[in-house]
Every structure is written in structure tokens, then in C-alpha cells.
Specification:
Number of strands: 24
Helix content: 25-40%
Distance between the termini: 137 Å
Strand content: 15-25%
């Protein structure tokens, strides 16, 4: 046999041997799989993976003190995507089809917060202010991707198209639709542990369409949930609204047991009483095999609705306060806005917190851009966050301090010359001097309150000194929170040497406190700046002879089914202004004279069937042509029930705002008892029993 044939035969032998070896290896592997490890791999193949999905609980109702429902729930339909059923392959096409159907539904709201336009005009642009939370979240997202955080909208879209593998031939508009949903999925951490809410408020037509085509969209389900149903057009700043949990807040809410899809109170009572209003979410358990096929699903924990919150608010009184305030502001040339507060003097319950201008919660989302750009700032809750010089309403505090410290008494008379000449370099005038060229003459404390005599209180304030005056102001609650549960309340600012020294630490341009500052503070000017709520609670403390309660909006909490009361708010005394009965008698008498026959508010309360004690204030505002008008009062004089404060920016005088106070008293004392009052143009009243 020649050498060539021997080599060929050798190769064949080697190949044959190799084939035998390979065959033996395959057999050995099969033996290992089927015999040795067969049970182990069979267990893995048959293993079921279990995860849970949240069933959102409906929030509790919000009611007024009389049981009138202000906020409840209504059933709305949405679309959600459940991870276990969702097909990742080809998802971009499915998303585009779904978005087109959602956009064709006039009622539906797509869950898409990407602040970039659709690119219909050849380029993408940012569609929201760079101060918006949506833009801030996009910047954070870009940073997490390792991208520049200040990229143009076009650059962001280019990066997102690449990230989500969107073909180049996809139009700009369609790409924006797909990217918006994919981006939102990441924002809400769409995973097997968290379903994704694709759209809300979908119509029954879309519900039917999705139900009919459910096989074409695996994982897309009609989501039935309770949404907030606002049943009043009033009290927007009080009730507030709910919204989704932002990514930056997730850690906090996660610790409290919230699901990522939950809606939480963002402002107002919805936020303040979140712990009562939120329900307990239910759970749905889904089992899948190792290939992702759903084996079973069932509801394992039933959702429990939240409890119902009863507010101290009287919605009918709130309505009157808002409407009267709006009417009065609109009738005063130069008025810019205002607030009205009504509080129960016996326990600190807030009966009304009105603002002008305001807004309607029912259309808040649609109106937001317009509201946020309105120069009259309707989104500002002036009743608790607007701070104003109290003007002459502060003179009651000065009177109490002067009487208690002994610098004046019931018999003290001070002669008002018109111009206060004690200080050589600063000689302010009494208000009456500007119109008559003379002062009030001899005045005691009750007459000084009645006539709002600046001169009398200049002298009283000088004799007291700034420290004593500041101390009494703080006892009345000025410069501190009232106890209100709503967020956004301002502490205000008290005028005095201690407060000035503290402010100088942050502002070295402020000069040291002087005697001129003291006499200005004594008539409610200078550094004094208080909220309408603080002024109302101050008046309540005057009415009760020094007992001031914490102001509050929560009255009670009812079980979700109203079967029991689970919590009742107990009124708490905030402070006790210790003063002699004779001191309170004198200031009460002076306030009664204000609304009496010869008082500064006589024209408003002439022949009014209920005796009212009040004090008007005209507060100068630097940089404005028209003074603010302030009025505080309580009624009935002999048995105080409620205190009212009304402030109108640019109201010009306290008497200009007093008609709002009168309307509130009409509503409180007559309308709620089935009675009514009518008045002619002169203010003469007939009481109809």
C-alpha cells in the first residue's frame, strides 16, 4: 500500500474515532440531563414566579361642618399596562397604535410628562418653563443616562430615539408619541412589580374598543378607579388637590406603604389630612412560569377606602364670603385682591377662609397656565399666606398693653393737637389733621378707639416703649403660626426692637430701633405684617377676654362607611392674655363705639339688628397709590360667637371693606337659621323671622 493511501485510511480512522467520542459525549450529556439532574431541571422548568400588583383604594370624602359633601369620588376608566402580559418585542408599534387611539378620544388624558413638543414644525422644542418640575425631572433623567443636562430638545429626542430603538424612517410626530410613553414608563419604574398607567379618563367608547381588541394588545387592561369629584366651586384654596407621587418624593412615600402609582394630597385639606383620607390599597397576585406565561391571577387583599374628613368650614358661609369679597373688590377702583376669615371665638374653628381672586378646582388643570401667569396671583392663599400691615386694628393691642402696664387708665385723657411733636426730627400727624387741619382734642381710651386717634396711640406707644409693645403683640399670636393644619401659612412679622435686632443679622442695612419706630408700631404700621387669619384670631382673643384658641380646620373623622366617628378634634387654648376685666371692658366698649352712631363704621352698621364690635384700619403700603383696607370685628357684642377679619389690597380704608363683614354676619346669623335680612340703600334693615 502506498504512502498516500495509508494517510487517507489514518484520517478516516481518526474521524471515526472522533465521531465515536462525540457520540459518547452527547450520550453522557443526555444521561446527565435526564437521569442524574433530570428532577432538578424539571423543577426549574415548572417553577412559578409570583408578584403582586396594587389595587388602588379610593380616598375618603371631605365634608363641611353641616355634612355637605365637598369632595367625593367618581368612577373613571383608564388604561394600564401590566408587565407580565406586556410583549416587549414590537412594543413601539403597539404604543403608537394605542397613543393614536387615546388622542382620538376627546376625554382621555395620556400619561406623558416629557416637556418636549411633537416636532410638527420641523424641530422639537421645550413646551414648559425651565422652572417646571417636568423639566427638572428630565434634566435628572439625562444626567442619569450620562448625557448633558442642558441639551436642546432636538438633542434629547435624538438620544431618546436611539435609546428606545426607534427606526430612522419613523416621523418626528410618531417618534415623539412613542418616546413620551417609553420615557414615562422609566419615570414610573415600570416593572413586574409596578403596573404603568397609560391613560386616564377614557371614554366608554375607548373602553369598548380596547375590550374588543384585547388580544391585539396583551398586557393592556381597562383600569377602573375612583377619581376626586369636586362638588363645590368654592373653597379651592382650602380643599386642595391630589396628584401623582414625584420621583424625588418616592422614598418618603415608599416608607409609608404607598404604591408608586398612588395619588396623594398635594395642597390644602387633601394634603393636610392625607393620613385620614388615604385608604389601604389592595393586592392582586399574578403567577407566571419561567417563560413569562401567566398561570393564574387573583385578588389576595381587598382595598379599603379611606376615612371621611369633616371640616369646621361652613360652605354656605364660605360662599357668601367669597362672593361678597369679589363683589367689593371689583367695585373699588384700584383694589387688587383680598381675603376674609371667619372664626368661632369659643373654640378656634375656622368657618370661612375666602380669597379674591380665586379659582375653581373643577377646572384647575385646564386653567393652570392662565392662573399661574395672572398678575393678581389667584393661586396665592391670601387668607393665610398674605401678610399685611394691620393699620389701626392694631390699636386694640396698644390699648391693652397701655392699660395693663399702667401708662394709661380709664380716666386718662390725651389732647390730640393734630401733629405729634414729641420728637424733633419726626413729627407724624393724626389722620384727621390732613382733612381738617386740627386734631380730635381731648380723648380717653374708648374715644380714641372709636375715632381711631393716631395721636392718642402715638403717646401710649411712646410711654410703653418698643419692648413692652412687642411683648403684647406676641401674646396675641402675632409673628407665630396659628395652629392651622394647612401648609403655606406665614408667621408674619412683629414690629419691635427684639425682632429688629434679629432681622439685622441677615440684613445689615437695617437701622437700630428708635422711638419713631415705636410710635409707628403702636398704630399698626412700621414692621408689623400679619395674615388675615392672625388678625381674625387676634380679634377672637379680644372677644373672649384674652383666651385665644389654636385655629383649626379639622372637626372630626368618620369611618369609611360613616358607621362611627374615629377621631374628634379637641380645641386647644393657644395662649391666655392675662389682663384685668376692666381692661377688656374698656376695649370692648371702644370697639362697640366704632360701629355705633358716631363711630368710624357707623354708615355700614347703622340700624343693624345685631350689636357688633369692630375696628377699622387703613394701612399705608410703600410703593402703592392706594392704602389697604382692614376691618376686624366680633358679634354679638354681649355674647360673642364669631370674629371676622376682611382685608382688601388697595381698599383705601377699613370702612370700604366693612360691607363684606356685614354680609358675612347676615349669612351667619340669619340665613343658617332660616331667617333673612334685607336692607335698603341707606343700610336700614328689616329682619324677617
Amino acid at each position: 500500500m502506498d504512502l498516500h493511501k495509508k494517510q487517507q485510511m489514518h484520517r478516516l480512522a481518526v474521524l471515526a474515532g472522533g465521531g465515536v467520542i462525540c457520540g459518547l459525549i452527547v450520550v453522557a450529556n443526555l444521561f446527565s440531563l435526564q437521569i442524574i439532574h433530570g428532577d432538578e431541571y424539571a423543577d426549574q422548568a415548572n417553577h412559578l414566579f409570583t408578584y403582586t400588583s396594587t389595587s388602588a383604594a379610593s380616598r375618603g370624602d371631605i365634608l363641611d361642618r353641616n355634612g355637605q359633601t365637598l369632595v367625593t369620588n367618581t368612577t373613571v376608566y383608564g388604561l394600564r399596562i401590566t408587565y407580565a402580559f406586556w410583549e416587549k418585542d414590537g412594543q413601539n408599534d403597539k404604543i403608537l397604535q394605542l397613543v393614536n387611539m387615546i388622542e382620538a378620544d376627546e376625554e382621555a388624558e395620556l400619561n406623558d410628562t416629557l416637556p418636549i413638543s411633537s416636532g410638527r414644525y420641523g424641530a422639537y422644542t421645550y413646551i414648559k418653563d425651565t422652572d417646571s418640575s417636568d423639566y427638572t425631572r428630565l434634566q435628572k433623567f439625562c444626567g442619569n443616562q450620562g448625557w448633558d443636562t442642558d441639551m436642546s430638545a432636538d438633542a434629547v429626542m435624538t438620544a431618546l430615539r436611539e435609546k428606545y430603538e426607534i427606526p430612522a424612517e419613523t416621523s418626528m410626530t410618531d417618534a415623539r408619541k412613542i418616546v413620551g410613553v417609553r420615557y414615562q414608563m422609566e419615570q414610573e419604574q415600570f416593572s413586574m412589580y409596578n403596573a404603568f398607567s397609560l391613560a386616564s379618563n377614557i371614554s366608554m367608547d375607548l373602553v369598548a374598543k380596547i375590550s374588543e381588541q384585547h388580544e391585539d394588545y396583551p398586557g393592556v387592561e381597562v383600569d377602573t378607579r375612583a377619581e376626586r369629584d369636586i362638588q363645590t366651586e368654592y373653597a379651592a384654596n382650602i380643599l386642595g388637590y391630589v396628584g401623582p407621587i414625584f420621583a424625588e418624593d418616592w422614598d418618603k412615600y415608599k416608607e409609608e406603604g404607598y404604591s408608586m402609582n398612588a395619588k396623594v394630597g398635594k395642597t390644602g385639606a387633601e394634603q393636610a389630612f392625607e393620613e385620614y383620607l388615604r385608604g389601604t390599597d389592595g393586592e392582586r397576585t399574578i403567577e407566571t412560569d419561567s417563560r413569562g406565561n401567566v398561570v393564574s391571577e387573583k385578588e389576595t387583599v381587598e382595598a379599603q377606602s379611606g376615612n371621611n374628613v369633616v371640616l369646621t368650614l361652613d360652605i354656605n358661609l364660605q360662599k357668601v364670603a367669597e362672593e361678597s369679597l369679589a363683589s367689593r373688590c371689583q367695585s373699588i377702583s384700584g383694589a387688587r385682591g383680598g381675603a376674609a376669615v371667619v372664626i368661632d371665638v369659643t373654640n378656634g374653628e375656622i368657618l370661612a377662609l375666602a380669597n379674591y381672586p380665586t379659582y375653581n378646582l373643577k377646572t384647575f388643570n385646564e386653567d393652570y397656565n392662565e392662573l399661574s401667569q395672572d398678575e393678581l396671583t389667584p393661586l396665592l392663599n391670601r387668607s393665610i399666606a398674605g401678610t399685611y400691615a394691620p393699620g389701626s386694628t392694631y390699636k386694640i393691642c396698644t390699648a391693652v398693653a397701655g392699660l395693663e402696664e399702667g401708662v394709661i387708665d380709664a380716666d386718662t385723657e390725651i389732647y390730640d393737637e393734630g401733629v405729634y411733636t414729641y420728637f424733633k426730627g419726626y413729627q407724624p400727624r393724626c389722620w384727621i389733621y390732613s382733612s381738617t387741619g386740627q386734631g380730635h382734642g381731648w380723648e380717653d381710651v374708648t374715644e380714641a378707639i372709636q375715632d381711631s386717634c393716631n395721636y392718642f396711640f402715638f403717646e401710649t406707644g411712646r410711654l410703653l416703649g418698643g419692648e413692652k409693645l412687642e411683648s403684647y403683640a406676641k401674646q396675641f399670636g402675632f409673628g407665630d403660626y396659628t395652629g392651622l393644619e394647612l401648609s403655606g401659612e406665614k408667621k408674619g412679622r412683629v414690629a419691635g426692637p427684639t425682632a429688629r435686632a434679629a432681622a439685622q443679622k441677615n440684613d445689615s442695612s437695617l437701622r437700630d430701633w428708635s422711638g419713631g419706630d415705636t410710635i409707628q408700631a403702636a398704630i399698626g404700621q412700621g414692621d408689623n405684617a400679619f395674615t388675615p387669619l392672625q388678625l381674625a384670631n387676634y380679634c377672637a382673643a379680644i372677644a373672649t377676654g384674652g383666651t385665644q384658641y389654636e385655629a383649626h380646620l379639622l372637626r372630626s373623622v368618620k369611618a369609611y362607611d360613616y358607621s362611627e366617628t374615629v377621631y374628634t378634634k379637641e380645641s386647644r387654648v393657644r395662649s391666655k392674655i392675662e389682663a384685668q376685666d376692666s381692661t377688656w371692658d374698656l376695649v370692648h366698649e371702644g370697639m362697640a363705639k366704632v360701629t355705633g352712631e358716631d363711630g368710624t363704621a357707623a354708615s355700614v352698621f347703622q340700624n343693624y339688628p345685631i350689636k357688633v364690635a369692630g375696628k377699622s384700619g387703613t394701612a399705608q403700603v410703600t410703593g402703592t397709590e392706594q392704602d389697604n383696607g382692614v376691618f376686624i370685628s366680633y358679634a354679638p357684642y354681649d355674647d360673642p360667637q364669631i370674629a371676622v377679619c376682611v382685608v382688601i389690597e388697595g381698599g383705601d380704608s377699613g370702612n370700604n371693606v366693612a360691607p363684606v363683614v356685614r354680609d358675612i354676619y347676615n349669612a351667619y346669623f340669619y340665613s343658617r337659621s332660616g331667617s333673612d335680612t334685607t336692607s335698603d340703600d341707606t343700610g336700614n334693615y328689616d329682619v324677617i323671622a
